[in-house]
Amino acid sequence: MAVIDPALLPDTFVAAFNAKDLNAIDRLFEPGAVRVLRPGEVVVGDGRRAATSSFLALGVPIEISLRHSYVYDDTALLIGDFVIDGTKPDGERVHIEGTATDVARRGPDGLWRYIIDNPPGVEKAEG
């Protein structure tokens, strides 16, 4: 799952997510990458992996449609619409959607990885 074009990161993420492969997902992120849970709340490392695990535990596939990919040198801004829609194994319906704004960086090995995973996108903080 080596990504040499940042525009392919979302599709690669979808494949790993829908395969429920947390290790493959984790390889798509730099070790210090951050995940925005909601505006103003950011997790890294084990917290980021735990957040991803909680979405995987829903047992519902994700779809991502990349809107834009803007690249400058070794940095990319990816904007994409995502939907998690279906029925959990316990029968409960799930519908989560939004427009993510993510940042990726090309590493010294030439591969692209997420450094900021921001599923809430441009949502405003509550309060």
From TrEMBL:
Organism in which the protein naturally occurs: Streptomyces salinarius
Domain DUF4440: residue ranges: 12-113
Domain of life where this protein originates: Bacteria
InterPro entries associated with the record: DUF4440, NTF2-like_dom_sf
Protein's UniProt name: YybH family protein
